Amino acid sequence: MKRFHVHLGVPDLAESIRFYSNLFGMPPAVEKSDYAKWMLDDPRVNFAISMRGAKAGLNHLGLQVESDDELADVRKQFEQADTPSVTDETNIQCCYARGNKHWVRDPQGIPWEAFHTLGSVPLYGGAEEPAPAAACGSSVSACCAPAVEQLNTPTATKCCA
């Protein structure tokens, strides 16, 4: 079963964690110094926020799936969405997780991610030590969405690594 995914960049993580914890009636399922995630069942949403140097607001939208077969089905839907191309990332470490992903951008330029999480990693993007928020640079936004020019490039920079 798919789960809708929303990722927002926030300027004040603690303030946002308080707000969304009250809004959702529960604390985050994952909380780090620069990231928090709620896994809601009603509605079925993976809602994440981060403070990784990107502007505040919508970072990306997506669909989280539970199997590689489901991920392959969503990739086919991405291909049929009349986008220039789909960017594939295999066994990528990003946002404290390891998984397989596909990316497209909608006509407004909003990144859409389809992903199957395979496990967790202790540090953001799987780095050996915490990277500063600005480490993602201009080519990759706060949590892993490839830059527009990278979506059509087979060697797209992976996450913040």
Commentary on this structure:
- The chain has 161 residues and is an alpha+beta fold.
- It has a single domain (3-150), classed as 2,3-Dihydroxybiphenyl 1,2-Dioxygenase, domain 1 (Roll), CATH 3.10.180.10.
- The protein is 16% helix and 37% strand.
- It is built from 2 helices and 8 strands, in the order E-H-E-E-E-E-H-E-E-E.
- It has helices at residues 13-24, 68-80; strands at residues 3-9, 30-31, 35-41, 44-50, 57-65, 87-94, 97-105, 111-120.
- The chain has an 8-stranded mixed beta sheet with strand order 2-3-4-1-5-8-7-6, with helices on one face.
- Strand 3 (35-41) and strand 4 form a beta hairpin.
- The longest helix has 13 residues, at 68-80.
- The chain is globular.
- The two termini are 30 Å apart.
- The relative contact order is 0.19.
In brief:
This protein is of the alpha+beta class. The protein has 2 helices and 8 strands.
Annotation keywords:
161 residues, alpha+beta, 2,3-Dihydroxybiphenyl 1,2-Dioxygenase, domain 1, globular
